[in-house]
Structure formats: C-alpha cells, structure tokens
Specification:
Layout lengths: L1 H23 L25 H10 L1 H18 L14 H21 L2 H15 L9 H17 L6 H16 L16 H16 L5 H14 L1 H5 L10 H23 L14 H7 L22 H9 L6 H7 L14 H6 L15 E4 L5 E5 L9 E5 L15 E5 L2 E4 L7 H5 L28 E3 L14 E3 L4 E7 L8 E11 L3 E10 L4 E10 L2 E6 L2 E6 L2 E8 L4 E6 L15 E10 L3 E9 L1
Antiparallel strand pairs: 1-2, 2-3, 3-4, 4-5, 6-11, 7-8, 8-9, 9-10, 10-17, 11-16, 12-13, 13-14, 14-17, 15-16
Helix pairs in contact: 1-7, 2-3, 3-4, 4-5, 4-6, 5-6, 5-7, 6-7, 6-8, 7-8, 8-9, 8-11
Length: about 625
C-alpha cells in the first residue's frame, strides 16, 4: 500500500511539472476551444461501433476470413511469454512494434468477442512493458510506438481494467512516453521533415488521448503541438503524392500519419484540414502504382522488396470514394497461403477503416502511367493491371541528399513475363552496418555512407561517369511524360547529377508498342580528352553474351534480350556484386550486366538499350 501511494505521488509530481511547463511555454493554436472528449473508448473506435464491423464480417466472407485470422493469431499470442526489455543494438524498436501488435490484436479480439482470455492477455502485456525501466528515449521511435500500443489497450479496455492496473499503465504512458517528449534531447522529431515526425507525433497524441481526463491541458498541448509540427513531413507529399522515402517508409510514415488523423476525426470531429495538405490524399495512388505485376514493390532507397497489405489504403479509399484504390489490397486481403499480413502490427485498423466496404465492389484501375514530382520524382508505367506477364517499369529522379536516399537518380526497374529483370537491392539492415561503425547517416559527398555497396551508383541501374560517384546535391525531376500506347515514356534531365562530369545528360525510359522497354541516354561530354561511360543493370538472371552488342538473360524458363544501339566501341561486361568491404551484405545470385564506352571531348552521343522479352 505504501509503495502504491509513493507511485501515485510521483505520478502526480510529474503531472504538475508538465502542467507548469505547458503553462509557461505557450498557448494553444488548434485545440483552444476543445472542452472535453468522448468517454472511453475514444481512440479510432467508439463504444458501440463494433456493430458495424460485425455486420461487415457477416456480409462478406473475405472480411469474415480476416476476422477469424486475427482471432487465430491472438490465440497464438496468448501462448507466448510476455515481452522483455531486450534491445537490438541501440534500438528497442522491435519490442515496441511487437507490443503494438499484441495489444492491438488482443484488444480488438476482446471488443469483438467479449472473451475474457483476450482481455487478460492484453492486460498482461501492458503491465509487462509498463514495468520496463524506460522505453528507450534515446531512439524515440521506440517510445512513440510503445506509447501508441499501450494507449490503445488502455483506452479500449479502460472500463475493464482494475484501478491498480490503470494506475500502473497510466503512469508508464505519462512518465515513459509523454514526459520525454518535452526533453529537447529527444524532441528533435518535432522539426524532422520525415517519418520520425509522423510516427512520434502519432504516438504522443495517442498517449494524450488516452489520459485526457487526468491531464486535459497537457493532452491538448501535445495534440496541438502534433497538428502544428506534422505539417513538416506532410509538406513533402506535394505536389502529387510521391513519398520521398519510398514504398516501405510510405507504409510506415503514412500509416502513422493516417492513424493520427483518424484518431483526431473520431475524438474531435475534425482533422484541422490536415487531409487537404497538397498531395496527401493523392499519395494513395503513388502507393498503389508502386506494386508491380509480380506483387513485389518498386524498392528504391532504403526499402525491402515485398509488397504488403496496407490498412491505411482503406482509409484513403473511403476519403476519395474510389474502390479501385483497393485493387492491390484485395489481393493481399485474400492471400490465405502465408497470411503475412498477420505480422502487420496495425492490422486491426483494417477492420475499422474497411467497415462497410464490400470486397466484390473493388474495381480495376484504369490509368497505366503515374507520375509524381517533389523531393523524389518517380514514374511507374505498365501494360496491364491484371496480367501477371505485363510489362512494368519504375523510373526515378531525385537526389541522394534526401532522407534514406541512395545514389540512384536515373535508375529503373523492369518486369516482363512475371520476372524482374532489372532489379534494385534496396536497403541493407541498419544494425549490420552500425555494428561495424559505419557512418551510415552522414550524406556528405565523401561520407562513408557512399562506400556501402548497395547505396552508391555503381550498384544501381544508372550511369557512372569515369568511375565517379553521383553528385549528392544534384537533383533531377521528371521533365515530361506520355501515356500513349505506342510509346509510353518519361524523360528526366540528369545533368545536375553529373555536374562537372558531363556537360549534359538526359535519360528517356519507354515502353514501346506494349512489347519492350527502351532506355535512351542523350549525353554531351565535357572538354577533356575522353570520358568513359559505364551503363549497368542489376539482375538475378543468368547472362550470356550473344553478339558484339547483345546479351541474353535467362530466369525461370524465360528470356530477355539486351540490345545496345550506340556508335563507337561498346565493351559488354559484367561486374560482381560481391564487395570487398567487411561491412557490406552478401548479394548471392545477382550480378551487374552492361557495358562501357569511351566518348571523345565535347561530343554529343546517344546510347540506346532495348530490353526485349
């Protein structure tokens, strides 16, 4: 009893300190007129709204299957030992993410079934992480995700929790979650124009919503702060919706951005016009078009290859009333072979945002070319949405100076006949590099980041000039494009990428007559005796040289002809993907194919490569 009293006094002390802090540090900009909140549960799904989900489950076998899959996964979770505070390198993030998954899944199961075992499982997990010494504020994503997960459970199960459990969990949210966000050492995320801002503001706001009746002024301050500062990363969706950090980080940053907005809409009946930020609603089309016919994504930058179900897409589809946005999601939703979606920690949100949506109403997309400008301009084009053998090309501009970017301006990927012939490695696991002491997050021109094999231009499907790195500060947009059936194409001026290496450089990537892909480089050399151009394409196919300017690639019983059309001496080559650096990942089963050519000083040259299935 004495210990409980001391804990309560400490909690009250923290509350008082933060309230004084709030009073001293400014007035509200957005939430000034907010007088109260709905009763618990108030985050995402209000009391009684379970019925809409149940009706959807009864009306649609796809949703019934998803619901039963979540319940089955919850039964597996109940057999697991509770989470422990075990860091991986400098991160507790994997534990925080698993905490969200377990608590969100189990809380959903309890609200939908009323089965006591799911409540007890969720309570046990919340109490376990609440007793951690801290939630690792030095890597604040860990705090944000843990706070979000625990807050959902606290809010959704509030009426069922005992007074002691509430007190323990509330104290943890306050002292291990919200309190550190006012420490300038950790709160740099408020000024970040990328996913950290989105994730951390969402996590802190969920904590604020969960504890509102105990700390109303502090809660309003935290949410107000989030509405103000989340504009920074949301600005980078403009003008068209292309997400600077690629597919994987779109799913991360945007999903948490949607979790934040959706929670505001539910609890406060407004999103303070965040949804109207330029490009934000349209970003769903970016995400949709990033999936190729193989159901793998265009994995540029620090991204994995796998495509996946994204609950956020159901929120976007409802916003724009376009069910064709769910063409890919229906595929993943119906994938009963491996059910990879069960590892998605926010999966129960799909039942909320998808409520009322009938899967048989999903229609096929009509547009086969999508272009987005912005920080990382990108274009995706295809010959079909429903033919697994369709041609698909992803092509990008951008800059290596943006968050998570590689030296890959001008790079492309290409699929045909169900094979990804031109590929991208994507990311190397950060911990494997950090453990070796690699200066991974320094993006200066000569930083160690660009020595990482997967990150520099030598390993991407682009040009290398005289064995030099691309210019980190260079930037390339998509200058023009066409969706004509006979010549679907996009053009990017890469001159700034090769500043002081080439006088000018332009790359045109096209799907010609729906039959093959053409990559054309129009370049002009500078005034030096000779310039060596290296043209590379990363592939997992087997290769043999079949002529002076032709190669044949083979994979999975399929063939692709690579044909070079260029004046001068073309030296067809392959390059190994095995690095001599001890910090680089192994890249088995891959090689770089292409050629080198020497071009005289001050010369205009056109290099054309056809990729013919």
């Amino acid at each position: 009893m004495k210990t409980n009293c001391l804990q309560k006094l400490r909690t009250i002390g923290v509350m008082l300190f933060l309230l004084v802090f709030v009073h001293v540090h400014g007035q509200l900009k957005y939430l000034e007129d907010v007088k109260g909140m709905p009763e618990h549960p108030r985050i995402l799904l209000l009391k009684g709204e379970e019925e809409k989900i149940k009706n959807n489950i009864q009306a649609d076998p796809v949703w019934e299957n998803m619901h039963q899959s979540i319940l089955s996964e919850c039964n597996q979770i109940l057999s697991l030992p509770v989470l422990e505070r075990i860091k991986t390198g400098k991160r507790l993030l994997s534990v925080s993410r698993e905490a969200i998954r377990r608590i969100f899944f189990l809380s959903y199961a309890y609200r939908m079934t009323g089965d006591e075992k799911y409540f007890k499982g969720a309570e046990k997990e919340m109490l376990a992480v609440s007793r951690f010494s801290d939630w690792n504020p030095s890597h604040f994503l860990d705090v944000a995700e843990m706070t979000l997960g625990v807050s959902i459970g606290y809010d959704w199960l509030y009426d069922k929790l005992s007074v002691d459990s509430r007190e323990t969990i509330k104290k943890a949210i306050l002292t291990k979650g919200l309190d550190p966000s006012f420490n300038s050492k950790y709160a740099w995320f408020l000024k970040a124009p990328h996913n950290w801002n989105q994730v951390c503001n969402a996590g802190m706001s969920y904590g604020a919503l969960a504890l509102y009746e105990d700390i109303p002024e502090l809660s309003k301050t935290i949410i107000d702060r989030a509405v103000e500062t989340i504009h920074l990363p949301m600005h980078d969706y403009g003008p068209d919706g292309a997400y600077p950090e690629g597919y994987g980080y779109w799913d991360y940053g945007t999903s948490f951005n949607v979790l934040f907005i959706s929670a505001l809409e539910k609890a406060l009946k407004t999103d303070y016009d965040l949804s109207s930020a330029p490009g934000f609603i349209n970003t769903a089309y970016y995400f949709q078009n990033m999936i190729a016919p193989s159901w793998k994504c265009y994995n540029y930058a620090d991204c994995g290859l796998g495509g996946n179900l994204s609950p956020a897409m159901f929120w976007f589809s409802g916003k724009v009333n376009d069910k064709s946005l769910l063409w890919n999601e229906k595929h993943y939703l119906s994938d009963n072979r491996n059910k990879g979606y069960l590892q998605n920690r926010i999966l129960p949100a799909v039942m909320i945002w998808g409520a009322g949506m009938k899967t048989n109403e999903v229609t096929i997309p009509q547009k086969k070319l999508w272009v987005g400008q912005g920080v990382t301009p990108v274009v995706m084009m295809r010959t079909s949405w429903d033919n697994p053998n369709a041609l698909f090309v992803g092509f990008k501009g951008g800059t290596a100076s943006s968050n998570h970017a590689h030296m890959d301006a001008g790079s492309f990927i290409m699929e045909a006949n169900g094979v990804r012939w031109a590929m991208d490695f994507g990311m190397q696991e950060y911990t494997s590099l950090e453990e070796k002491g690699v200066d991974l997050w320094n993006r200066a021109q000569n930083s160690q980041r660009w020595q990482v094999f997967r990150y520099n231009n030598f390993a991407h499907n682009t040009l290398t000039v005289d064995n030099q790195l691309q210019n980190v500060k260079g930037y390339a947009k998509i200058d023009s494009w066409s969706d004509r059936t006979e010549n679907m194409n996009a053009v990017s001026d890469l001159s700034a990428i090769y500043e002081n290496q080439l006088a000018s450089a332009k790359r045109i990537v096209a799907i010609v007559n729906q039959k093959y892909v053409e990559v054309k480089d129009e370049i002009k050399t500078i005034d030096k005796p000779s310039t060596t151009i290296r043209w590379t394409m990363l592939t997992s196919a087997e290769m043999k040289i079949t002529g002076k300017k032709t190669m044949e690639l083979r994979k999975d019983g399929k063939k692709l002809k690579l044909q070079v059309d260029s004046p001068g001496n073309i030296r067809l080559k392959t390059w190994t993907t095995k690095s001599t650096n001890d910090f680089d990942a192994a890249n088995p089963g891959t090689l770089l194919v292409g050629f080198e050519t020497d071009i005289p000083a001050d010369t205009d040259a056109v290099i054309k490569v056809s990729l013919i299935p």
